[in-house]
Amino acid sequence: MRKLVEFIRAVYVAVLFVLLELTALSYYARSTAYTEARLLVQSNRIVGGLHQAVSGVGNFFSLGKKNRQLTQRIAQLEEQLARYQEAATEVALQEELRNLGSSQYRMMAAAVVGNSVGRSRNYITLNRGRGDGVLSGMAVTTPEGAIAGYVVDCSERYAVAISILNSSFRASGTIEGGNHYGSLSWDGTSPHHILLEELPKYAEPKPGDRIVTTGFESYFPKGLLIGTVEEAQLDAVGTSYTVRIRLAADLNTMSNLVLIENLDQGEIDNLQHSEAIRELEMN
Amino acid sequence: MHRTPSYILLFIVMALLQIFLFNNLAISTFFCPLVYLTFLVLLPLESTPILMLGLGLLMGIVMDATMGIAGINTIATLPVAFLRPNIIRLLSARDDMRDDGLPSPERMGKQLFWSYVVVMILLHHTLFFSLEALSWYHLPRTLLRILLSSAGTLLIIGFTERLFTLKLSSSSQML
Predict the structure, then answer these.
(1) What local confidence, expressed as pLDDT, does residue A90 receive?
(2) What's the pTM?
(3) A21: which chain B residues are within 8 Å (Cβ-Cβ)?
(4) Given this structure, which CATH class describes domain A31-61+103-283?
């Protein structure tokens, strides 16, 4: 008996270590981008306020730059507005206004309270949550309209978005004005680049071409800017391109973002899961 | 036991540094030091194995929750905490080391201290970054991440060790 107690005393730390390590490993093995976002949302309940204070200090020092960017954006919009005012006849203007009134999208500004670019799965934490009307599946873009990610989970006051710089990020992209599309994914090499793969050879991407979203995914409206083509490589069999895209959004330095909600999402979801479709899938 | 408050402070400072400074540091994808390891490296040499394991687990879980990583920090931190006594024993050729007090170049000898720190960092960072990459496809890139990040952590540990030793020795003089 005494020997048994001694034996247990000698090995219990090692046994405990093995047990804990196995638990952690199995938890990690079962984890997905969703569970990680969930984790961030939970921990933000505790450290969210601190995060906000710290990023507030950081933002203070970049106020000058942010101001310049905003002014630039205003100038751009002013220019567009002037163009509309000049060109639009009464009828065209009416048409424009009608579209505005029934817009499919609702937008909301949010500040970044946490953001990483250095890991292989990066997330953006935002200071708007369910209480502000944030839902998972909303698109996240920079104020200039370039995509940065989409919301995966939110608490009452915070939301966590999967960053475009996340190995689990999936979306599709197309050359602006073209109708061939490929799939977007991040290879983890550079925070300024993303890959567009399986783009058909007929698309003929040229350096400098603008790549935009297709609107196939529920979370991104059609035509949002992703970036510009930096280089395109035809694969070995010559049927599709792998395109390296320079991201339009600078994920290192963003501090304010825009959330976009697709108001028709519920309707589209209902249709996609309707009886008729399910019957088709069954057969 | 008079050191306990200092260690609680060290835990908090290191956790905050990691969460608010180094996790948001966007210099390069290859440079992300995991400075919270400093806390485990500087724990007193006489810490019992179960205490080491418990503190390693605590730090790992705190880091996982705040970084939004499901378990890698804990997976990497536990072995480091568990193996620390063995690492020190393996590295020290002689047995005349007083096994109390906090690890420092003065107490352990320069060579032993630094090799101990480097082995701890490399073990931890190798586990962390290879689990994060989760494939050998990016091996050269993963190796570079391990090396650059380790160098960053090493710097911080060296710096913190100086400060912490100074603070502890001045506070024990006061007592």
Answers:
(1) 60
(2) 0.72
(3) 75, 78-79
(4) mainly beta
